Amino acid sequence: MSSTVPLIDLKAQQARIAPELRRRLDAVLAHGQFILGPEVAELEARLCGFCGAAHCVGVSSGTDALQIALMAAGVGPGDAVFLPAFTYTATAEVPLLLGATPVFVDVDARTFQIDPAHLAERIAAVRAAGRLRPRALIGVDLFGQPADWPALSALARQEDIFVLDDCAQSFGASLHGARLGREADATAVSFFPSKPLGAYGDGGALLTENAERAALYRSLRTHGEGTTRYEVLRTGINGRLDTLQAAVLLAKLDVFEEELAARERVAAAYDARLGNAVQIPARVPDSRSAWAIYAILLADGAARARMQEGLHAAGVASAIYYPRPLHRQPAYRAAHDGSALPVAEDLSQRILALPIHPDLSEADIAQVCDAVLDAV
Ligand SMILES: *Cc1c(COP(=O)(O)O)cnc(C)c1O
């Protein structure tokens, strides 16, 4: 049997970028500025150039990016923070850490992105109940695709709430020809190793068009410091991006465009071979996905279990993102108001992610597709 096709392959990528990676890491070892060294500012400028954002602040993870953005917006007890029920746990954890209440919103059955119509209903219900103040929206760009930003932004303006783009999975994606990074008041990016632009450890960034906001993010990532190091203006966190991670990311940014194109080719090849056999990912109109995840939908939970077994037997990795919607997680059940979120529940039973990364060969793609078609 051929070898196993992994979900992602960081070793193949490392081999491609080895000389530049080595040069970048050696430079950091030579200058020794491991905290906020010159690579951090260089990366921040390169990321602004890449997506057109005015300001970029490198931080310690995608989760810390979300937290710093909500801290800067003053989100706290009594505030309702609206977010999709079908996302990674970090999106809900941050409002809870700040004492705010997450209000879970259902997602679109085709694109898996937060459903603006349900969001409007949820905001209206919170206003009517009068217990919490609608304060912020975290729109998640799920699996590499953009959320419905025109609808989300219009609603947020009308409701006068802070909008945060959780772009942890989708940096590099575009909507209406523009790269994500400027759709919300702030955009949070993750450089977790398996994200499309991944470091070799934790890392993240905040993007914003607002200079004051960016200055606040810089202060908050360094313990709330003022203009001098030992002036503490506000309660902050230790949330800086490491210089070594910035160096890794600079080497990876050189090939990021090519990698996005390679991911797109894999997705197109899967679509072409699998589209008649299983439900392939629906595209958000007029967008380009960063293809963090390529997820198919099976008929039901039993069909998904059979598919996973078949793939495993054929040496093809697969994974379930997400096996439980957030409102069903033990940690968040108490925060949920009990509203039904049927789409998130249904997707969690039927969804399955196939391998996708820039170094999948034609043979790998054929092995994945053969395995899916045999198991369906
Ligand atoms: C990965 C991820 C995060 C958290 O990013 P980290 O860098 O791992 O802290 C937040 N939101 C979503 C949707 C994610 O996928």
Write a structural description.
By secondary structure, the protein is of the alpha/beta class. It has 2 domains: 10-105 and 112-253, Type I PLP-dependent aspartate aminotransferase-like (Major domain) (Aspartate Aminotransferase, domain 2), CATH 3.40.640; 256-375, Aspartate Aminotransferase, domain 1 (Alpha-Beta Complex), CATH 3.90.1150.10. It has helices spanning 10-31, 38-51, 62-72, 90-97, 116-129, 149-159, 211-221, 243-253, 256-274, 301-313, 330-333, 342-350, 362-375, and strands spanning 55-59, 79-84, 101-105, 133-140, 162-166, 174-175, 178-179, 186-190, 204-208, 287-288, 294-297, 351-354. The strands form 3 sheets. Strands 1-9-8-5-4-2-3 form a 7-stranded mixed β-sheet, sandwiched between helices. Helix 9 runs parallel beside helix 13. The longest helix is centred in the N-terminal third of the chain and has 22 residues, at 10-31. Residues 61-63, 87-88, 90-91, 140, 166, 168-169, 190, 192, 202, 204 line the site of pyridoxal-5'-phosphate. Pyridoxal-5'-phosphate binds next to helix 3 and helix 4.
Question: Summarize this, please?
Answer:
With 376 residues, this protein is an alpha/beta fold. The chain contains 13 helices and 12 strands. Bound molecules: pyridoxal-5'-phosphate.
